[in-house]
Amino acid sequence: MKKIISVVGARPNFMKVAPLHYEFLKHTDRIQHLICHTGQHFDEKMSKIFFDELELPEPDFYLGVGSGSHAEQTARIMLAFEKVLLTENPDLVIVVGDVNSTMACSIVASKLSVKVAHVEAGLRSFDRTMPEELNRLVTDVLADYLFVSEKSGLRNLKNEGISNDKIFFVGNVMIDSLVRFTSKIDRSEILKSLDLENSGYVLVTFHRPSNVDSFESLKALTNLLNRIAILRKVVFPVHPRTHKNLMNYNLADIFNPNIIITEPIGYIDFQKLTKHAELIITDSGGIQEETTYLGVQCITVRDSTERPITAEVGTNQLIGADFQKVETTALEVLNGNIKNGNIPELWDGKTAERIIHTILEKI
Fold first, then answer.
1. Is residue 124 within 8 Å of residue 158, measured between CB atoms?
2. Can 207 be counted among the known catalytic residues?
3. Are 141 and 106 in contact, with CB atoms under 8 Å apart?
4. What percent of the chain has pLDDT over 90?
5. pLDDT in tens, 96-120
């Protein structure tokens, strides 16, 4: 019996580990699969909602590291995760995505000579001002098995000198969750509760420091949303970081009444909103992938993306942080000038199956 520990730290990780967990359940005669939640996203209410919606069991380990600077958080994760590994002595640690937990647990496992698998390896924005980029680079250097979601990841890892025998092109595990929960998403009542059943709307998410940390950029964002709200309803689930800055800069009370402000929304309801949106404007990574799979128009307000396939073949448009250009593009989309897209290779809902098959073969 082999023991494998999968690490989740922040909400985007849950949708990536859930399909792996379901697949491991088919092999309980060979694999003991445990889940470690570092508590990096410290909103326990939202974490519980995501675990419940994704039908995940209670995590086997909860480290409760909470907030802090990047150094503080990373150090606390490393100290706590080391104790887990020393006690459990697993055969493999699986990390997903690019959050601090991903890098921290990779370092700890590698130093204890425990093999590491990185799901969603090879993605690069080539912007080292993003903490996630540094997490990706470190994790991929240390990982023994690198599971890649799109062809750009293969090129990046090859260019960085990673051995081919460590790299596996398997597709996008995030799409596995979308496929699995399609009927549950369709049954969501969020459109009814927000009075959106009979009207087109724009869905908006913003949380990156470059867009929400300065008064100038946040004011430009609020102006953009107010102008779009003249034409369509706007749904704006506000990230805690964004909310804090809106309050600090006294910008929280200047929104057009046509803008529906909500707290962060659970996975199922958010995917329902995504699926039926006329347009999504975001600075998120994962949303670029989900909109591409669903064929929903997406504008990404960043200068670079680590998921270029979504712009190359999908419905995503990478516009940059010029809010005037964002507004121009948004108006074009709302006037019917949409971008046609295709679903990328191996984004078929069977990625976890390919990953687990490879892991069973290797260990």
1. no
2. yes
3. no
4. 86
5. 999 999 999 999 999 999 999 999 9
pLDDT at 362: 92
Q: Answer whether CATH 1.10.3860.10 is correct for domain 183-334.
A: no
Distance CA 248, CA 261 (A): 17
Residue 363 in 3-state DSSP?
coil
The amino acid at 262: T
> pLDDT (tens digit, 9 = 90+) per residue, 11-55?
889 999 999 999 999 999 999 999 999 997 666 666 778 888 999
The predicted-structure confidence for 120-134, as pLDDT tens digits, reads as follows: 999 999 999 999 999
CB 106 within 8 A of CB 81: no
Among 129, 75, 83, 92, residue whose Cα is nearest residue 7: 92
- From CA 174, how far away is CA 196, in angstroms rounded? 26
Distance CA 341, CA 94 (A): 32
Q: For the chain, how far is it from start to end, CA to CA, in angstroms?
A: 11
Per the model's pLDDT, the better-predicted residue between 311 and 69 turns out to be 311
Domain with CATH 3.40.50.2000 in the chain: 2-171+347-362, 183-334
Please state which of the ranges 86-90, 255-259, 292-296 shows the lowest mean pLDDT: 255-259
CA separation (Å) from 279 to 75, 202, 295, 339, 345? 39, 5, 10, 11, 24
Q: What is the 3-state secondary structure (H, E, C) of 88-101?
A: HCCCEEEEECCCHH
Query: What is the per-residue pLDDT across 227-276, written as a single tens digit (0 to 9) for each?
Result: 999 999 999 999 888 899 889 889 888 899 999 999 999 999 999 999 99
Which of 207, 243, 276, 357 is an active site residue? Answer: 207
Coil, helix or strand at residue 294 = helix
Q: Answer whether CATH 2.70.40.10 is correct for domain 2-171+347-362.
A: no
The burial of 113, by beta-carbon neighbours within 10 Å (0-12 exposed, 13-18 middle, 19 or more buried), is given as exposed
